[in-house]
């Protein structure tokens, strides 16, 4: 059974463990005007495998997922939404 905590001063209950979703965003390229673009994020990832990992986390009682628009330039949020 997953332990839960109250999120801040809200009444929301979240799992004591969360899943960080930066890695499921995969690779992306950062480009700024006047600078050479460079690779950022993680290496190649398989979306289907990432979705299975999210499902496994849900099966274990995780309901707190950390994601952000810059994880894979938004791809992390897309994969999490598909799961």
Taking all Cα atoms into account, the compactness measure Rg is 15 Å
Structural class: alpha+beta
- Strand arrangement, major sheet: 1-2
How confident is the prediction overall: mean pLDDT? 92
Task: Report what the structure shows.
It is elongated, with a radius of gyration of 15 Å. It has a two-stranded antiparallel sheet with strand order 1-2. Strands 3-6 form a two-stranded parallel ribbon. A two-stranded antiparallel ribbon has the order 4-5. It has helices spanning about 45-60, 75-80; strands at about 5, 15, 20, 25-30, 40, 65. The protein has a domain at about 25-30 and about 40-60 and about 70-83. The protein has 2 helices and 6 strands, in the order E-E-E-E-E-H-E-H. With about 80 residues, it is α+β, with helices and mostly antiparallel strands.
Give a topology summary.
Blueprint: E1 4-6, E2 13-15, E3 19-20, E4 27-30, E5 38-41, H1 47-59, E6 65-66, H2 75-82
Parallel strand pairs: 3-6
Antiparallel strand pairs: 1-2, 4-5
Features:
single chain; 83 residues; alpha+beta; two-stranded parallel sheet; 2 helices; elongated
Give me a quick take on this structure.
The protein contains two helices and six strands. The protein is an alpha+beta fold and 83 residues long.
């Amino acid at each position: 059974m997953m332990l839960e905590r109250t999120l801040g001063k809200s009444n929301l209950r979240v799992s004591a463990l969360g899943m960080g979703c930066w890695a499921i965003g995969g690779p992306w390229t950062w480009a700024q005007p006047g600078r050479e673009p460079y690779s950022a994020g993680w290496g190649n990832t398989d979306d289907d495998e990432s979705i299975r990992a999210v499902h496994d986390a849900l099966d274990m009682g995780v309901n707190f997922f950390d994601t952000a628009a810059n994880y894979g330039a938004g791809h992390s949020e897309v994969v999490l939404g598909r799961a």
